[in-house]
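Reviewers of the previous submission asked for a worked example of the structure-prediction workflow described in the proposal, so we include one complete record here. The input consisted solely of the amino acid sequence. No template or homolog information was supplied to the procedure at any stage.
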Amino acid sequence: MPRHASKSLKESSIRVDSTSLQYPTTELTAPDPESNGFSSYSRSPRRHHQYADAAVDAEEEYSKKYIASQSSVFHRSSTKAFPRALLWRVLDNRHILDLAPCDLTIPDEISPASIELHRVRIRFSSPIKPSCVTFNEGYGDDLITIDVLTESLTLYTFAFNSRTFTAEWSRRPLTEWCHVQESAHFNLRPPHYMIALPQGSLVFALTDGGLMKLDRSRPLADDYLEQMFSDGSYLASIKGMFMWGSSDRLRGHHNVSANLVVSMVADPTSSILITASISNVLKLWSLDTLTSLNAYDVINDTSRAQQPANNKQLLGIEPSTLISLTKVSDTTGYVATYCPLGEDSFKLWKLDVTNGETTTATLTDVLGVPLRPSTPDENAVWMIPDFVLDYSGRLRNGGALDLWILWKSNKSSKIHALFDIPTDKDSKSTLTWQSVGSSATESVTSGEGWVYSANEDDTDRFTRHLFQPGVFSPAILETVLPIYERHYSMQANSEGNEDMYEPEVSLRKRVTKVVGAAVSLQPRDTNDGMDYELYNRDLQQQWSRFERLCLELSKQGNEALSLTRDSSTKAIVLVRATTVSVVRVCTGLEYADIAGTSNTISLHDGSVSSDGFAEDQDVVLLRALDSFKKSLPQPVTSDFVVAVTEDALTPPNFSTGDRMTTIYDSCLNEQISDSAIDMLHKRLYSIKDLEETLDVCYSELVSLTSTPNFGRPSLNTRRHLTRVGTELLSSAIHDSTVSTYQALIDLLLFLVVFAVDVSEEFNADHITLYDKFLSVFKTTAFLKKLTETMLESQSISQWRSSLSDGDLLSNSVNKLELSKNSMDRNSFVPGGTLLQYLYSRFSLSLGCACATELINSGGSLGVGKAVEYSMSYWSISDLPHAAIAAAGALVASGYVENSMPLLQFLSVDGLGCYTRGRVYIESGQFDKAATFLMKSTTDMASQPLTELTALSLREFWGMDGAGMSTAALGSGVMRLSSHVSDLFYRRAAYSHATEFVKLALDMRDPDVDHVEMDKLFTKAFQAALSGALYDDAYMAMTNIFEQRLRHDLLTAFIVTLCSSGQSLRLCDYAFLELQTEVEAILEQHARNTVDLHSPSAPNYYKILYSWRIEHGNYRDAASAIYEYIQRLRSGFTRSSFETLENTDFNSFDIDVTQGYLVLLNTLACIDEKPEPWFLARRATEMDAGLVESPVKKAKIGAPAAEYGRLKRVLVKLSDVEREYAEELGRMEAILNRQLVAIET
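From that input alone, the workflow returned the following structure tokens.
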């Protein structure tokens, strides 16, 4: 770990209104005791969009639905339970309790595909009392007991289990999951707030200063026991019933005692309860005897503990966190107490418990001095709503105490931490409060530091940042859209705008359309064209308005509500009104963004010092460079970033010095003021060794991006990340990447300016550092792309629709399949980032399993370690392979367009060109694909296939079929070209498929056998024939060695030519030894033709006749046309009545008469004495004269075989003339309407 990461912390957060927490919801309604109502429940469908009309306040609806007034995370004690973490939130003016699983990982024993997480939302008729929602699992059997006390003093108890949140809600009787109780004690002694004991009981703090314990055998039992605590006074329990006569009554609150308990903590390993009252009295209670054991004054005045409460300075009556307990053993623990009076201070106590016949407990002041915190700044009023004392030692040195406190103001919140608090009273050491950095996305929304190209318009720039992950959730944008449209857009009252709110219209398109419609293009005052400058200025103003509305709505959810600690993983979780954050250790250069430390506390006398401290040299450098960058105009900085990005992603054609000079001249020349240079020199003056400091910055960057372990198995685990886990990890990596990215821009800017502008000549060290930082910049830009690219709904894979079941190559080419390692619904949903998608798809490989295990086992430290490991996994040397794996995963799932930006991070070697070609094939850009695949042929064919290459190409191979690509790569040009030909063929790019299979044939190995060659020629034939490249198909077919296969391909060739209207081209090919086969194939297809008049089918008799005439075979040509005539006459299928009623000749009559004329002309070409003749097939009945005319025996639709057995006969010219005369006579009879009735 970098040296600064061990002492710097940062938040990583996710929004509760993000897609990760949008589970199917079970809506429940708690029964109303007064109306004796029954619970109802339903599954609420997820709505893509709900338009808020003018009658509905969209902002109020958002507040009710998403902004919580109370919220925290309940962690179950069992590490194998799932879900183990429940995010509970009180919504809708305290009428709804929302419960959602927020685990980061799924246990090994559970298959992610077998479950679907659900949320439960319970509506109450009366508002929920503040601090009156408790959770416990003391009853065992995977049971989660939730108690809720409403303002009507009704106690609701719900009994849920894991299945409640992992399966669809099943219809059950009310008594099996809900119990309603109204205590009679509450009428006389109203409760103030309550906590749950580890054993399952409840303790209520009463407004009269008393305590009540509620015991029950089961969570939903009707029998329960209510017992009052006693502080030793005989009349203590009665005195509270009559507050008007009590001397400790709180002034201004006639029913509230000055001894009111506002904070309670129960010891999880012993029967001890610790309470703090508004009079600053700390009491220890026995939960067995319900009696007070000891009392202490929080302000460190022992005598004050026994004084009347009214004589003391009192706290507010709202329930608050004033006590935090952490246990070391069953009988020992440490307690931190907070007193907000005077100078806010914390006090550390040691808790000692003695178990015997009577339990005793004492508190001992550990340090003897207060621990005073310092506010984050002086610009607001700050308060501490929550804090946590931790003895885990997981974050720092083992055995010491860590104190986490939560500051909040009316604008923001901040976490401070005090580490390594000693437990020795004689310690003379000092402690320093450390600030925890906020999420990096908070600064992105302000618009500062935006990087954009000069060619990028305002719409693209704003939409790119507004829709950047982690900035504004879809719920915020959906809420702001109708608000903006109602007040600013000219389309608010226009017609035809209903399609704006259809689910299929994306949110980005709707926002772009509404904001763009608020501005119109106007002509100039001088009437010399349109005023584009005014239009752009107005458009930018409208986008700024929309962004400001989003910012204001987002700020409403910034209120900090609770700070909790997971007792198992020791993770520190901060819950705000609309976000959940986890504290993690910093990675890389993130520490430079964290504010400096504040107060230093001396444990000798408790004195507090706020003197400055000596910053590390690299921190001074980075902050000086950041100030220098901010002194430049924003367009200049943006142009520089664009130029550096191009330099990092483009293969270098010039020396590093020349490239640096080019960047300076194009972006920075005459743009930097002398005062900015002087200020930079002044700030860098305190750095002793600048070169060494730059090397330190590089070493800390390389520690993130140099671990060469891409693709290696990490841990023996089957644990998966959940959707919340993938989003949190993606958010953390994004924060770290943004910080690193900005620091690298500062460093590269400094090196260019210093080397070109300040120095008279180039320093070799500066050039070397520039190349080093540029390499890291490329990796960081890749990670930034992964964490900022959002994936919407999947598109249909184009390659899948191009498949056909009747493919001639179906026996040799496997059908395409998606990778079996597909994502599950609990890991990713559309709307997440590309990195989230990769973690869900590669859940058990590519380092994801190791990151998952680190998060599961390490808590806050684990999240930081997972970020560091994940960033190191996409290292410099393995960046091209990572980009290949990411692009392959996207293409395999239909996100082809999203994979295109990743191509710029590929290398220029054969593997990079091969991957580009694969992506371009799936996007339909076949010419580009062919170019890159042709470039990759030599390298990919000769280089052996490594394990790393195989892993990175796994997703592409999953589309190809088992073993196809694996056998092709590294096995020579022939096999690789054949493989590429298959890729083009599946996407119907037949010309390119033919090109590569021809290359395979040209580069074939000399020892290839006939079987392998026939496979190649078959591929060449199929590709060429499908692409109408008939010459190439003919050449491939004639080279087939195996006769049966060649005959099949010849048949396919002839059928394709005839079916596509290219039958005349048959005569253009010699066919050499295949002429007999050609005639046989044509003759077979002619005789197998059923409908000779089909307009879509070729007439094989005419084609066969033409073929024989072309080759001088007049006798067989006559035989073919004669057989055609006989089939027309014997296969007559016309309606008999049509013959009588229609005097026009149809195609049947014309074809017969024309056939006889062609036959007579053909016989005239045969020089035979005494008369020409030929052999033909004819029905025997006609020869015997049994059939007077084929027309009379014809039946509608009857086949020709029905009229007699066919045999070969000798037909002379005179026979043809006689038949022709008969046909003419029949036609004459038709014209004269003398045809007799046809027999039926």
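The two ends are 99 Å apart (CA to CA). We consider this example representative of the routine output the project will generate in years two and three.
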